Amino acid sequence: MINNILEFKEVWKTYGDDRTKITALKGINLELKKNSLNLILGPSGSGKTTLLNLASLLDSPTNGEIIINGQDTSKLSKSGRTKIRRNRIGIVYQRANLFPYLNILENIMLPMISKDINNASKTLNKVGIVETSKFPDEISIEKQQRAALARAMINDPHLIIADEPTGELDKKSTEAVMDLIIKMKNKHTILMLSNNDDLKEYCDELFLIKDGYLQKK
Predict the structure, then answer these.
(1) Where residue 122 falls among pLDDT bands split at 50, 70, 90?
(2) Cβ of 131: how many Cβ atoms within 10 Å?
(3) Intra-chain end-to-end CA distance of the chain, in Å
(4) Which of 62, 127, 129, 182 qualifies as a FRET site for 107, CA 20 to 30 Å off?
(5) Can you give the pTM of this predicted structure?
(6) 4-94+154-216: which CATH number, 3.50.50.60, 1.20.1300.10, 3.40.50.300, 3.65.10.10?
(7) Do the bridges between strand 159-163 and strand 89-92 make them parallel or antiparallel, or are there none, so unpaired?
(8) How far apart are CA 189 and CA 58, in angstroms?
(9) C-alpha to C-alpha distances, 207 to 31, 68, 131, 162, 167, nearest whole angstrom
(10) CB–CB of 145/177 below 8 Å?
(11) Greatest Cα-to-Cα distance within the chain, rounded to the nearest angstrom
């Protein structure tokens, strides 16, 4: 039985050549347990974005292993990483990034592997959205972010990565969205990346990243 959904083993990420080399991540070790809510806190430039790109398989490490649900992804081809990302990973960004010319239901159905309108409607109901035929600019920022959460869940992924998911929300909306994220961990493992120290009260595990180094608190 697999207990860790995501593992980084001595992961390094370097950009550039010998003259312009920048090391963004330095020997990162990370384990995320199944059905847990994990937060990585760090300032701008600390390595959060690089870590997100590696965890979501948008990029590959210079050295080290990235294991998702027991599978080492480090040596996979680009198409192999894309397949895992589509099937096993959901991503939520600071901005909902909904297509303005599609209604809410159409937006969250875009990444669906099996186009099931009933499942899409049920997933939206889980996050408290009934205005499925409205367009993004017709609903609040909070509801747009709720729709983004539904989109991340739509293929029932093992791992959901949330990059500053409350960054554009006020305090009340932040609490509402975080309550939803807490419920999501019943079926998913969640990794949040943020510079908002207030979010640590919601998490099961807290990590700090600075200058490319990761530390568990």
Answers:
(1) very high
(2) 14
(3) 26
(4) 182
(5) 0.92
(6) 3.40.50.300
(7) parallel
(8) 19
(9) 11, 19, 37, 15, 18
(10) yes
(11) 55
